[in-house]
Amino acid sequence: MKTKSEKAAAYFENGFNCAQSVFSTFCERYGLDEESALKIASGLGGGFRSGEICGAVSGAVLVVGLKYGQSIADDLDVKRNCNAKAEEFIQVFRERNGSIVCRELLGCDLSTEEGRAQAKRDNLFRTICDEKVRNAVDLLDELGY
Q1: Which of 32, 76, 117, 129 is deepest in the core (most CB within 10 A)?
Q2: Mean pLDDT over all residues of the chain?
């Protein structure tokens, strides 16, 4: 039986982006099918396609929403709790990884042709992204997701 981080790494190694890999690892636990999870998170890799928020982080925050998310408009206690849980994840991920920004973590900007070429040339998807996917999943596990 694979660990959750091994499952997420397998998604990533099979061509899914970092957000898809993290989010899909937890989706079924919270009543979302794998295909829907993969589709929902498909545009979030590469730092929202802009080098901004790391896809592993955005995928993890989607998991936070699955567990704690607000579904009733005026349920402000649930909204505050979900926000606090998302902030907790982000804070700890930042402390452990130095940043939550894709281009800072990679040292290049995937929203540019040059950045994508550098990431491929320097094998950053395997050396850095794979690690961030595993880190995000392990942190979610540690926080009880």
Answers
A1: 129
A2: 97
Nearest to 45 by CA among 98, 119, 97: 119
Residue owning tokens 């979030």: 44
What is the per-residue pLDDT for 1? 66
Look up tokens 């957000």; give the residue.
19
The structure tokens listed for 27 are 């989706």
Tokens of 129: 């992204």
Question: What's at 57, amino acid-wise?
Answer: V
- The percent of residues above 70 in pLDDT, for the chain, comes to 99
Contact 54, 105 (CB under 8 A): yes
Q: Distance between CA atoms of 140 and 26, rounded to whole angstroms?
A: 9
Ordered by start, the domain boundaries in the chain are 4-142
Q: Measured between alpha carbons, how far is 101 from 145 in angstroms, rounded to an integer?
A: 23
Structural contact between residues 105 and 99, judged by C-beta atoms closer than 8 angstroms: yes
Partners of 53 in the β-ladder: 101
pTM exceeds 0.85 for this model: yes
Each residue's pLDDT tens digit, 19-43: 999 999 999 999 999 999 999 999 9
